[in-house]
UniProtKB/TrEMBL annotation:
This is AraC family transcriptional regulator. Residues 174-272 form the HTH araC/xylS-type domain. Keywords: DNA-binding, Transcription, Transcription regulation.
Amino acid sequence: MLEKISKDFVIDHRTRHVEGLPPLSHSHQFNEIYFLQSGKCHVYIENEKYTLEDGSVLFIPAFKEHTFVYYDTVDVKRTVLYISTEQLNWYFDDNFKEEIDNLFINRHIKLSRKSFSNLSSLFEKIQFEKYNIDNLSAPLTKAYFFEMIIYIIRCHRYNDEIIKKTDLSNITTGEILHYIDDNYGNDLTLPGLAKKFGLSESGLSKKIKAFTNMTFKEYLTKTRIEAAKSLLISSEKSITEIAVLCGYNSSNFFGDVFKKNMGMSPSSYKKMLTMN
């Protein structure tokens, strides 16, 4: 497959059956972005060891020998994107070169649940458009790829910069959003959150609206739908199981909310991605 990589890039999404699989060592002329959606593995890059689990993103520079060691019996679901250095430089001007270089130097990023869901969605868009649906597919693929890298850069900056900005004036809002991102599968309500964080319901609503430009209900729904999209493509769970994991006690209600936001039912969404 690597010999057939185009001048742009190739995205490869698959489930790897790891039981009894020997260590996989190789190198190639392309930069590799490895997104682990589920499962665990060790990766060795020039004597450095990285332990990857759900939500890990690993940047492997071109020509670097790397070895994947699968130590669990659970199948691994991952998406890999290969891109040449020439094309990578073409996408990003000097304003981003240092940060792109830092991604391949620091190599490993562990995403939060929300970031994991958002990145999964971007990978799905790239994967879908790479099948050349129409003459808009090529520019959309490039646009989604650009968005994906910029989003990862933001995730890389997050602890150092965004948290600091939040701490200065919106620490409560930051904590609330983190809490929603980590607990969207639970029964979250505006009164319950307001009580937890010592705020009035109207005060909590105003903070979320100012920070996200969404109401509490809109932000919670968006978080749950993004999580559901990720589960639909990366797991074999039933619609009912996904509904419960995403905070919906009724699969019918979940289906109605999903269709309202995505324009199709959860089963149709999963079928569309499976077919492509």
